[in-house]
Write a structure and sequence with these properties.
Elements: E1 4-9, E2 12-20, E3 29-35, E4 38-41, E5 72-81, E6 86-97, E7 100-104, E8 109-110, E9 117-118, E10 124-127
Antiparallel strand pairs: 1-2, 2-3, 3-4, 5-6, 6-7, 7-10, 8-9
Length: 131
């Protein structure tokens, strides 16, 4: 299910939402979790519960990618900083999941294992419905 979290809590069925990051000079969205008439901050452990599209293709096993994931890894993001009137291309760790591109500082993840381990919530999110 697109944007759903894999549990029902006191908030009811939880879904991913987003809002502008008012604490940043950059124009970016941050993820939130919404439930029955309540919205809370996206927490580190929420990333493992974001449900993905059914049947997401991980690619051919024989395509010489050495097992690298097609739905997460390093990618540059062009961001506009209105306070300096400049564009910056910053390398972030992106995760494609549940209809969103979540992005992290590389210092906030450990991707040396089979799956990435997230130490903090994402610093931003790009809702794919807005691309």
């Amino acid at each position: 299910m697109n944007g759903s979290l894999g549990r029902t809590t006191g908030l009811g069925e939880e879904r991913i939402t987003f809002k502008m990051d008012e604490s940043s000079d950059l124009d970016r969205f941050i993820p939130q979790v919404s439930g029955r008439n309540a919205i809370r901050d996206f927490e580190t452990e929420d990333m493992g519960r974001v449900l993905d599209y059914d049947g997401l293709n991980e690619g051919n096993v024989d395509d010489d990618r050495n097992g690298e994931s097609m739905n997460e890894g390093g990618l540059m993001l062009c961001e506009y900083n209105p306070s300096t009137d400049n564009l910056a291309f910053t390398l972030y760790y992106f995760v494609l999941r549940g209809g969103f591109l979540f992005f992290y500082d590389f210092d906030d993840i450990d991707d040396s294992e089979t799956y990435a381990i997230f130490h903090n919530p994402p610093i931003g999110v790009i809702p794919l419905g807005n691309v």
